[in-house]
Each structure stands twice: as structure tokens, then as C-alpha cells.
Write a structure and sequence with these properties.
By secondary structure, the chain is mainly alpha-helical. Helix content is about 50%, strand content about 10%. It contains eight helices and ten strands. Helix 3 crosses helix 4.
Length: about 300
Amino acid sequence: MGSRYNVLSPKAHEIWQGNNYFFCYGRVMLGPRPCALPASLTLILGPFGTYVYFVLPQMSSNVIHLAIASSLCIIAVVSFLIASATDPGVVPRRSPLNVPSDTLDVDGVALRYCNTCQHFRPPRCKHCKFCNNCVMNFDHHCPFLGTCVGQRNYRSFVVFIGTTCVLSGYLMVLDIVLLCTFATKYSTGHNTWDDILHSLSMDIPATILAFFLIIVFFSVAHLFCYHLYLICVGQTTNEQIRKVFKGHANPNNLGCLGNFARTFCHPIPRSRLQPRELSTPIRDDLTRSVQSDIQITKESNDDLGDA
């Protein structure tokens, strides 16, 4: 009696209005397509397993190659799981309010009202139509992670694609070296193309793996370089595609070194979600809701200034 919570009230993650899935009693937050995780892990572990089983036994110094490839694979998988199972920076929803205006000026910054999440969106915050949430520093919705990439999982996402790029490139080079060894060893000296085709046919799994890794390497390398560029200029994918700062200065740009320090060295902000807490039936009033939005905006600006 007298408690603001009902003892029988459901947990917040049990009545979540977004399209996310929660596991382990709200400790793990996945996107609307959790089936993307095993598919993406297969694309990582499949080529690695093929390399270990078919290619590695035929190479010299296989222990060193196994240690390097295994380390890269572990880092890629761990960073992938962290990025996909972490709250990307979701701004909690509020009770429906009758706001007098769709915009709110905070320290010269115009905030737009989200009619779905019922709050004024802080700077760089965007509503994802796939996850049905507003995400701080929204970058993009990643189909491989099955969730959004934003303020709290962008670092692990960049580590994931960077490590995957190095891993695929490393395995690709070793695989091609093995095929070239076959071509040299069994060369007839008459027709170069016949020698190449003969070497490719001698180890079908290694040949298939080589073509697959070439595609993966150049695709992921392009994506990794693109995000390194975005970090250098202090923009998100969403901002760069929409040309948000075309014609005027970007206030989020701290310089190349400052941007890299903010991305990889600055503490990750604490999650604003409490999915394991009991849901509360208390409705927000307009003043309290607006004050909360202003506080989130100021915290976002303070994080930018401290980076």
C-alpha cells in the first residue's frame, strides 16, 4: 500500500513498445531481426572453419597462422555480439502529451517532437522505422547486426568491421599463396592459363574460399574506410547521406584526432533504459517531460564538449 508501483506490474521489457527482443530477463537487447545474428556469425565462422580444416594443414608455420587468425576471429565475434546485443542509445518513450509546438529551442538548438516516442528529440537523435525507437547519435540500421548503430554501440561496430576486414584479408592472402604454390609446383611451362586452372582444380575448397574472401575483403574494406572517413569529419552515416552540414560548419567536428578520441577513448554513456525495472503507471506531465528532454540535450552537449 502507498507504493508507486504495483507488485503485480510487469517489467518494462515485457511491455516494450519498440520492435526489439529482450533475453535473459531484460539483460540482452536485440533488434527486430534476431535471426540475423546466426546468419552473420555463419559468414564469419564458416570461412574461418574452412580455412582451418582445408587450407591450414597444407601450410608451413601453421601454428603461427592459426594463432593470428584465431585471435582476429575471436575479436570479430566478440565485438559483433557486443554491438548487436547492446542498447544503441535508445531514448525512452513517454506518456502521450499535448505539446503546444512541434519544436523546442534549447540553447539555440531546435529540437523536433517525435509523435511516436512522445518526446523532443535531442541533437543527432533519429527515430528508426525498423526498431521503432529514437536512437541517440543514430548512424544507421545495420541488417547484419539486426539492430541500430548509435551512440552506445558504434565503437564496437567499427571494431567489428575493422577486425573482419583484417581477418578476411589475412586469410585471403594465405589462401592465394597456397594456390600460387600449387601453380608453381605443378607448372608444365607451356600454357599459363592451363597451369592456373589446374592449380585451382587441385583444391576446390581453397579455390571457393579464395573467391569468397576476395568479395568479403573488398566489400568490408570499403565499408571500414568509409566509417574511418566519417569519424575523421565528425559525421554519422545518416548525416552524411542527408548532407545535414552542407554549406555550414559541423559543430560536432572536434578535428580528426579529437573525433577518434571521442569514438574510441571517451567513456560510453550509460543506458537510459531500465528494462528490468517494474513499469510505472504514473503519467508524465508536460513540464516534467520537457525538462527531461532539455536535460538529455544538455548532457549530450556536455559529452561533446568533454570529448
